[in-house]
User: What shape does this take?
Amino acid sequence: MDEALKENIYGALEQVIDPELGIDIVNLGLVYGVELDENGTAKVTMTLTSMGCPLAPVIVDQVTAALADIPEVKQTEVDIVWSPPWTKDKMSRYAKIALGVT
Assistant: This one.
């Protein structure tokens, strides 16, 4: 996947807002990686802020919808992982400032 396409995908994922925290999943550090295979299937490896997150299906649907506008992406698979566990250290400087985390 070329750099421009990767930027497009991450830009689209920045439109997915974590409903609990009000910050996008990229700046929260929830997206661990994105791969695009030769068939146009985007595999998004990500985590959530908590294991029992009741909004997981909503976030997965939003990720799928966000990538649907990218022509190269024909299908999206979201792989929710718990290792490595998410910590506040994974957040961008922007997210830490917005949430008042030091």
